[in-house]
Structure formats: C-alpha cells, structure tokens
Write a structure and sequence with these properties.
The chain is of the alpha+beta class. It has a single domain, classed as Alpha-Beta Plaits, CATH 3.30.70. It has one helix and six strands. Strands 1-2 form a two-stranded antiparallel sheet. Strands 3-4 form a two-stranded antiparallel sheet. A hairpin with a 2-residue loop joins strand 1 and strand 2. The protein is globular, with a radius of gyration of 13 Å.
C-alpha cells in the first residue's frame, strides 16, 4: 500500500488512483489480505462518491434510498 497511497494514520490510506488500479487493489484486499476494509472513492452520482466494504469493519455501510450512510455500533 505504501507504494500507492499515503498512510495518514495506522491502517488508513489515501490515494488518487484510476479505476483499474482501484479495482485490482480491492481484489487484492478481499482475496489475498482478507482484511476488514471500507473503500471510499469518487464517482458520478448524487453524492459524488461510492463505498465498498469487506469483512467486518468497525463501521457499517447502509444504502438508504441511494444515499450511502456510515454507522458505528455502540458497545455497552
């Protein structure tokens, strides 16, 4: 990841990559690394971005009538 992105905090990366590289990277995250992940990227929709999630990340991605919302469960 360090070749493609800047690690802004441990486990959080940011990059400006094209769709082909993004899809290949997501494939590697899901199939080889099997890491709990959320990917947010720009696209041509109402919000201007889309989300992908894999595994059991600490946040949940919900599609609410075409709008992506991110929620976090509260542990008691």
């Amino acid at each position: 990841m360090s070749r493609l992105a800047i690690e802004i905090k441990p486990g959080v990366f940011i990059a400006n990559i094209n769709a082909r590289v993004r899809d290949k990277l997501w494939e590697k995250i899901c199939e080889k690394w099997k890491s709990d992940s959320i990917m947010i990227y720009t696209t041509n929709n109402e919000q201007g971005y889309a989300l992908r999630s894999f595994g059991n990340p600490s946040r949940n991605v919900e599609n609410f009538e075409g709008i992506f919302l991110v929620s976090r469960s509260i542990e008691k």
